[in-house]
Structure formats: structure tokens, C-alpha cells
Design brief:
The chain is an alpha/beta fold and about 190 residues long. An eight-stranded parallel barrel has the order 1-2-3-4-5-6-7-8, surrounded by eight helices.
Length: about 190
């Protein structure tokens, strides 16, 4: 199944990320087969995931952004049991580890704000052992290229992507996919 996930990512160079109901409605008919859910609360997340599944797409829930969930391992258990999400996204290695134990696909989201964050990337990856790393902001192709060549995981780039040339530069730098909330980029 993990290999199938990578194949889907490779076949979908743009991964739709949604941050509101309007984005969700639009992504259900877009080409992306993987949807990153960046909003919701404990009362609505199961319905959001179900709508994504009904559209024939994989649903990845960004745990850190779901209102009402604590940054604890039990939050991963909740998502697995009550939403049937295919995977999770988190900045927290402990949550990624728990999700892997439960058989969920995992995306470790890393914000590269400075050289210290870049230097700590290997440590985070070795702690979490995610299926995929998502690096934000995406608009650093030179840095992204170094990350893609140094980590032993596929890399997704996200954040600030707004043009086809951005997507092409990131794919050329070695990412497996580009995540974005920009609906115009989904259609490229």
C-alpha cells in the first residue's frame, strides 16, 4: 500500500490542500487524488473526510490544525477510529510515529525558517520516520534540491506556490509533489 501512495503522489504533481468549505467543494472535482485537509474541528472532521472519500480521493488530516484535538497521541487514535482518514500531517514527530503504528500514511511538515531549522531536519526525520516530508515554504528551490538529495524520504514542497513555473522549478529540484491551497495551481 505504501508503494501505491508514492505512485499516486508521483502521478499527481500537485496535491490539493484545503483550508475551508469552499476549497473542499472545489477540490472534490479537481485532478488531485490526494487532499490535504487543513481545517475542521472534532465535530466536523469525520464528515470532511467522508466527503473526500466519496469523491474517490485519499484524505490526509493535518492534526495540528483540527480545533479540539490536543497534540497528544490519542488525537491520532481519534482520527484513525472516527474519521477513517488515510493519513495525517503533523509537525510533531511523536504524532507521526503513532500514526505509523496505526497504519496511517504520514507527512511530517517542516517549516524551514532559518539555518537552525534546516540543520535539525535530519533529527526530526530520524525521530518520526515519516512516509513523506513536506517542506515549507516551497519557494526555495536551491534548498529544496539539497533536502531532496540528502533525506531518505520523498519530499513534498508547499506554501507560496502560485504559478506553473513554481511547480515546474520544484519538481525539477526533486520534490515528488507540490501542495497548495491555490485553486488555479490545482488545474495546471
Amino acid at each position: 500500500m505504501q508503494r501505491n501512495f508514492y505512485e499516486i503522489l508521483e502521478d499527481n504533481p500537485v496535491t490539493a490542500a484545503v483550508k475551508d468549505e469552499e476549497g473542499l467543494r472545489d477540490c472534490l472535482t479537481c485532478d488531485s487524488r490526494i487532499i490535504f485537509i487543513l481545517y475542521g474541528d472534532i465535530c466536523s472532521i469525520a464528515d470532511i473526510v467522508e466527503r473526500v472519500h466519496e469523491a474517490g480521493k485519499l484524505a490526509f488530516v493535518h492534526l495540528d490544525l483540527i480545533v479540539g484535538l490536543a497534540p497528544k497521541e490519542v488525537a491520532v487514535d481519534f482520527i484513525r477510529r472516527y474519521t477513517k482518514a488515510d493519513g495525517i500531517i503533523s509537525t510533531r514527530p511523536v504524532l507521526i510515529k503513532r500514526a505509523r503504528e496505526l497504519g496511517l500514511f504520514t507527512v511530517l511538515r517542516c517549516f524551514l525558517l532559518d539555518s537552525r531549522a534546516y540543520e535539525n531536519l535530519d533529527k526530526l526525520v530520524s525521530q518520526a520516520m515519516p512516509d513523506v516530508i513536506e517542506v515549507l515554504p516551497a519557494m526555495m528551490p536551491k534548498v529544496i534540491r539539497r533536502i531532496c538529495s540528502s533525506v531518505q524520504r520523498p519530499v513534498i514542497a508547499g506554501g507560496l506556490v502560485s504559478e506553473k513555473s513554481d511547480v515546474m522549478a520544484l519538481l525539477e529540484a526533486g520534490v515528488i509533489s507540490v501542495s497548495t491551497t491555490d485553486r488555479d495551481v490545482w488545474a495546471m
